[in-house]
Design a protein that fits this description.
Helix content: 25-40%
Structural class: alpha/beta
Number of helices: 3
Oligomer: single chain
Mean pLDDT: 77
Strand content: 15-25%
Number of strands: 5
Strand order of the largest sheet: 3-4-5
Length: 116
């Protein structure tokens, strides 16, 4: 069984409606690009992909290093990820289940993810 977000809700394959799918996305490394225009382009492509799958998605799994920054900063949001975060909130509001399978770079985001 899979656990939803950081909470204890579980889903099984039987929970997924026939017309819905599960999507996986890995190692986006948002915030990696040193040039702001590259960061914007990368984020735009990712947000467009999320928009394109929203009607078909039952759940989306984000694996590995989604954000690429020094995660011990407690009050810093890296550039190039605000639109991504807003899109995640929109997907959650649409009742799409969002899962993050943590990698080293995402541990600093646990408190933020708890509030989505």
């Amino acid at each position: 069984m899979l656990k939803h977000k950081i909470h204890s809700e579980q889903i099984t394959l039987d929970d997924i409606p026939e017309q819905k799918k599960i999507f996986f996305c890995s190692d986006l490394h948002l915030g990696r690009d040193t040039l702001f225009t590259l960061a914007q382009q990368r984020e735009k492509v990712i947000v467009q992909w999320l928009e394109s799958i929203a009607k078909k998605a039952y759940a989306i799994f984000f694996l590995g290093d989604i954000f690429d920054f020094w995660f011990e900063y407690k009050h810093v949001i890296p550039h190039g990820s605000i639109r991504f975060q807003a899109k995640i909130q929109t997907l959650v509001d649409q009742k799409i289940k969002i899962f993050f399978l943590l990698a080293i770079m995402i541990f600093g985001w646990i408190n933020i993810l708890k509030n989505i």
